[in-house]
Amino acid sequence: MRDVFIIGTGIVPFGRYPDLLLEDFAKEAVTEAVGDAGLGARRFDMAIFGHSNGGRVAGQRVLRELSLTGMPILNVENACAGGGTSLHVGWMAIASGLHDLALVVGMEKMERGLIPPNPGEYESFLGKTLPAKYALRARKHMQRYGLTIEQLAQVSVKNHSAGALNPNAHYQQEVTLEEVLASRPIAEPLTLLQCCPTTDGAAALVIASAEVADQLGRRGVRIAASVLKSGIYRNSSTDATASDDDLAERAAAAAYEMAGLGPSDIDVAEVHDAFTIGEILAYENLGFCERGEGGRLVDEGVTALGGRLPVNTSGGRLSMGHPLGATGVAQVVELTRQLEGRAGARQVPRARAALAHVQGGSTPGIGTGAAAVHILTTEETTSVH
Amino acid sequence: MTEVAPRIGKWTVTTDGDVILSGTNCPQCGETVFPAHTICVRCGSPDTHEALLRGPAKLRSFTIVHQLPSGFPSPLVIGYGEFEGRTQVLAPIVDVTRNQLIEGRPLALTVGVTRTGENGEEFVTYQFTPIEPWESDDSLSARASSQETGHA
Ligand SMILES: [Zn+2]
């Protein structure tokens, strides 16, 4: 496998664009990434677009606006993990030696309100909405490990506090613990401020082989690991780990092995906090702490800006918003800029290794449909693992 | 819902009024699942047999859902009931009060209207109902915003 580098990033402010087409704002993210990479007249070998609601050949519709035509363009659907999946596809194309320069875009214009379930999802038919799915995981964690509603709410406080420093976040206001707990219940114990808002957005990455990265003088951030997995059936009574947690655990273990790094090497992370409990479980599944210790980690400020391992410095899904396909790419934009020292007021000092985790899509009986984990490093990173 | 029938699991009601869920068991790996799978979802064996699940089930995780698609009563309690350590089934929990929502408590399998469709049609599904009599009248609709439920 060849090394793959991230040589350009672009993102539009996440928010609501009722009067714009998807093409209108997605092309802005692409333009920024292309400019950042300093591509000049160089053409992409391939482009991959992650989205769930974009409709047919949405990627081609975006690139047509920029006169970027003729190359293979792929449209990828993997629910909340669509952006991470798209980066994985781009990484495969370059790591394998087939291509040298690829564009990876995540983009979404969301429907308002609850995401409607697929007709075959029998649990959704009985009332298990997406927030309810996470609420059930939260209740289980409370029963088993004593996670408190205050610890859950603290995730929202922490991420909104980072989001207040991010000009690209949908919500840029801090919230208090009292406000989070007092906001209206959505699926108990989750309240409104513990659920990601409905948000439109787009983000883009230019990725390249070492040869092209060197030609452009942009060999800064390397994709040290790119892993995509799907769920496996687990029996919630007899298996130690539920399918959703098992999936993230397997994806993370494979990513650490590929990177030759361990959880203690990670300096900054973006994890899937579509709901507060998702971030707590991610800490445990990604090895940032022991199982059952996720609540303590947020309590002690370990994962806040200024802590030992800042998580969701972008503001996370809770303040950025969560345009499904855009999320995984936006996470990597944030982490790349952290490693480049370009994260402004959210900069994590001396960040050299970063981890991005997205997962989503319900498949009855086998849990989450897809999880992607990426580890990024600066060139000088060496393993202490 | 459209003309495509929802793919929830099958159940029968006996002459005594008992509700029985019809899942499958895999002789190869021993796994029991509901709804039924012709190919075992754990090991891939094509040799599965019908397995019947009877109440009472034990309450495992649960949530009180307040934001719902149209057609559901709100709030709606849903939860997982565990059948003899074999498998867990998610269903609406009806005729329930907040202080009955405690992990491990027994649930009867019942049948009732879970939701209505776009044209007012009623969808009857399996449900859970707490078995033991409870004295409190701490009804869900009266305290819709409490956060303390079952936090033991
Ligand atoms: Zn089997």
Q: What is the radius of gyration of chain B?
A: 17 Å
Give the largest interface pair and sizes.
A-B, 37 and 49 residues
Helical fraction of chain B equals under 10%
Give the CA-CA distance, first to last residue of chain B. Answer: 38 Å
Mean pLDDT of chain A: 95
Strand order of the largest sheet of chain B: 7-6-5-8-9
Quick one: how many beta strands of chain A?
11
Series of H and E elements of chain A: EHEHEHEHHHHEEEHEHEHHHHEE
Q: Helix count of chain A?
A: 13
Number of domains of chain A: 2
For the biggest β-sheet of chain A, the strand order reads: 3-2-4-7-1-8-11-10-9
- Strand segment tally of chain B: 9
Number of domains of chain B: 2
Characterize the biggest β-sheet of chain A: 9 strands, mixed
Based on helices, strands and strand pairing, what is the structural class of chain B? mainly beta
Terminal Cα separation of chain A, in Å? 21 Å
Strand portion of chain A: 15-25%
Q: Overall pLDDT of chain B, averaged?
A: 86
Polypeptide structure, described:
By secondary structure, chain A is an alpha/beta fold. Chain A folds into two domains: 4-111 and 199-223, Thiolase/Chalcone synthase (Peroxisomal Thiolase, Chain A, domain 1); 124-196 and 225-377, Peroxisomal Thiolase, Chain A, domain 1. Chain A has 13 helices and eleven strands. Chain A has a nine-stranded mixed β-sheet, sandwiched between helices. In chain A, strands 5-6 form a two-stranded antiparallel ribbon. In chain A, helix 2 (58-64) links the parallel strand 2 and strand 3. In chain A, helix 1 packs across helix 2 and helix 3 crosses helix 13 (324-339). Chain B has two domains: 21-53; 55-149. In chain B, 0% of the residues lie in helices and 41% in strands. Chain B has strands at residues 10-13, 19-25, 32-33, 49-54, 57-65, 76-83, 87-92, 106-116, 122-130. Chain B has a five-stranded antiparallel β-sheet, with no helix packed on it. The radius of gyration of chain B is 17 Å and the shape is globular. In chain B, 34% of the residues are buried. Residues 141-152 of chain B have low confidence and may be disordered. Classes of the chains: A alpha/beta (385), B mainly beta (152). Chains A and B meet through helix 4, helix 5 and strand 5 of A and strand 5, strand 6 and strand 7 of B. Bound molecules: zinc ion. Residues 26, 28-29, 31, 40, 42-43, 45 of chain B line the site of zinc ion (ZN).
